Every structure is written in structure tokens, then in C-alpha cells.
TrEMBL record, chain A:
<dbReference type="InterPro" id="IPR036656">
    <property type="entry name" value="QCR9_sf"/>
</dbReference>
<dbReference type="GO" id="GO:0045275">
    <property type="term" value="C:respiratory chain complex III"/>
</dbReference>
<keyword id="KW-0813">Transport</keyword>
<protein>
    <recommendedName>
        <fullName>Complex III subunit 9</fullName>
    </recommendedName>
</protein>
<dbReference type="GO" id="GO:0005743">
    <property type="term" value="C:mitochondrial inner membrane"/>
</dbReference>
<keyword id="KW-1133">Transmembrane helix</keyword>
<comment type="subunit">
    <text>Component of the ubiquinol-cytochrome c oxidoreductase (cytochrome b-c1 complex, complex III, CIII), a multisubunit enzyme composed of 3 respiratory subunits cytochrome b, cytochrome c1 and Rieske protein, 2 core protein subunits, and additional low-molecular weight protein subunits.</text>
</comment>
<keyword id="KW-0679">Respiratory chain</keyword>
<keyword id="KW-0249">Electron transport</keyword>
From TrEMBL, chain B:
<dbReference type="GO" id="GO:0005743">
    <property type="term" value="C:mitochondrial inner membrane"/>
</dbReference>
<keyword id="KW-0349">Heme</keyword>
<dbReference type="GO" id="GO:0046872">
    <property type="term" value="F:metal ion binding"/>
</dbReference>
<keyword id="KW-0496">Mitochondrion</keyword>
<comment type="similarity">
    <text>Belongs to the cytochrome c family.</text>
</comment>
<protein>
    <recommendedName>
        <fullName>quinol--cytochrome-c reductase</fullName>
        <ecNumber>7.1.1.8</ecNumber>
    </recommendedName>
</protein>
<feature type="binding site" description="covalent">
    <location>
        <position position="82"/>
    </location>
    <ligand>
        <name>heme c</name>
    </ligand>
</feature>
<keyword id="KW-0679">Respiratory chain</keyword>
<dbReference type="Pfam" id="PF02167">
    <property type="entry name" value="Cytochrom_C1"/>
</dbReference>
Amino acid sequence: MSFIASLFQRNSIYVATIFGGAFAFQGFFDVAVTKWYENHNKGKLWHDVKGKFLDGGDEDEDDE
Amino acid sequence: MFRAVSTPLAQKFITGAVATTGLGASYLLYQDSITANAMTAAEHGLHPPAYGWSHNGMFETFDHASIRRGFQVYRDVCAACHSLDRIAWRNLVGVSHTASEAKAFCEELEYDDEPDDEGAPRKRPGKLADYLPSPYENEQAARAANQGALPPDLSLIVKARHGACDYIFSLLTGYPDEPPAGVVLPPGSNYNPYFPGGSIAMGRVLFDELVEYEDGTPATTSQMAKDVTTFLNWAAEPEHDDRKKWGLKALIVTSSLYLVAIWVKRFKWQPIKNRKIRFDPPKK
């Protein structure tokens, strides 16, 4: 029996696969989309322009 | 198709009718544009041109440096008359300012505190969770200070006006030095062709070099108008950048699912569509 087919044998495995797959996919998908989006808008986002205003001062303390 | 119009008389007649309609329509439109009566172009205000905002487009975020400069313009200029009720100091954090900068802004201000044990009112320094203060105690005070006109709250102004950013920018930069000949304005009002009716209680407020930008951007009138408009657009749609990112994700997922659905449909239907049905009549 193939690996794929074995996922369908038991309902518990089947459901767990769907939930686990969704979890893994959304993590990967969110990272990929965010990466493209932030690259597409490079230079306009706050973390890109922050340095211009703070001149190296209190860069990374409690702020986002 | 159509039969060619044969007689020269009929042709002349058609030409004449077209010319009369065109000239008549132009004349009526022109008439409509030179008075400010109800239901005319002047009553509705001049349409603003469409500007190339850097946040136009499906996947474009706001320009956050512009939001920051725009906040400076709002705080230095507009905040004297306009409130921004729906924005709290914390909203600026991670958008245009750091937490420590936002704290520094609000700690300079006094907000109402719980009354003391005798019930006397007390004040406390602002916190990040406080909302931006209003310039006036109430509407009456605002009207009294502005010749009866109420400066509207600017939180949602970009969404609340036709033309959105284009309109706000045009309004701020659209004050001519002199109102056009023949325009009579009520006392205390100013001429602005973009404002419906042309007569607005707010005078021109932006002039070159009015503020000094910390990043060295030259503070021209149009630069300040662009920045404050971007800031006000952010104030009206703080979810804007995230919304466009979610939109992108939704588009990718739904269009993939659509393609999968088409594939599944073809997969399932293929044997059905390809089968051949043959009827063998029973042999006698």
C-alpha cells in the first residue's frame, strides 16, 4: 500500500493529515506571500524607512 | 446593414440634425458650468484629477515615510482646528513612529484621570492607549471659533468624500490667489473650486516651508498636501496594508482552488463524455 493510500485508511489519520497539512501550508504560504509583498513594496514600509528617521538611535528596544 | 442615404436632401437634413444636437448640447453644458445653481457642475465642485498615489493598485502599501511626514503636518497645522477622534497614540506605533516616540508625544499632554476621594477632577499624563486630543471642547466651541463652520473630524474624511485622496489633495492645493471675477462670497468664506459650491469656511492653510521635515524633504505646499493626505488615508484605513496582503492570499488560494475544481470536474467527466453508447436491438 502506498504512503498516500495509507493516509486514507483510518479516519483519525485522515483528519490529522488534513489539519497538519493546513497548518504546515499556511505557515509556508504566509511566509512566501509576506516575503513577496514586502519585497514588492520595499522602501515604503515602516521597517525600511525607520532608519532614515531614527539615525541609528533607539532602533530596537520595545518598538515594533 | 444600412441602406446608403441616397438623396442629397436627406443627407443635408441628417448633417444639420447632428450639428444642431452637438451645438445645442455644448451650449447647455457651458451654461451649466458658469453658474453655481443647484444641480450644476459648480455646485458639485470641480472634479479632481486622478493622481498617481504610490498606494494605488491592488498590491501597493502606503508610503510610511509619507505617513510620518503627514502626521507632522497634521499635528503642526490641521490639529489646531480638526480632531482625529478615531486614532489613538498606540496606532502610530510600528506604522510611522516607534513606541518611545509615541509615548513622548502623549506624555506631553494631560488627560482626565479618575477623580480623587473628594470627587475633585484630576489630570494625568497621556498613555499610548489614549486617543488624540480634540482642539475644541465641543461642537459649539468649534463653531464659535470658525465663524459658525464646523471643522469636520478627519479620521474618516478620505473615505467620506468623493474623489478620496485626489479630492483632499486638490482641496488643500486648490486655493487661487483671487476668486474668479463675478464670484460673490459670504463673509468669512474662501473660494475653492473643488469644494462643492465653491465657498468654503476653511482658508488656505498650507504654504511653502510651513513645517520643517526631519528627513530633509523640501516642505513645499504640494509635498505637505500629499503627505497629510496619505496620513489621513492611513487614518481612515489603518488596515489597508494588511488588507491588500490578505487580498493577495485570497486571490492565490481561490484561483488555485478554482483550477483544481476544473481539473477534478474534467477528471470525473472524462469517462462519461468519452463513452460510446450502442444499442443492440434484440435479435429475433
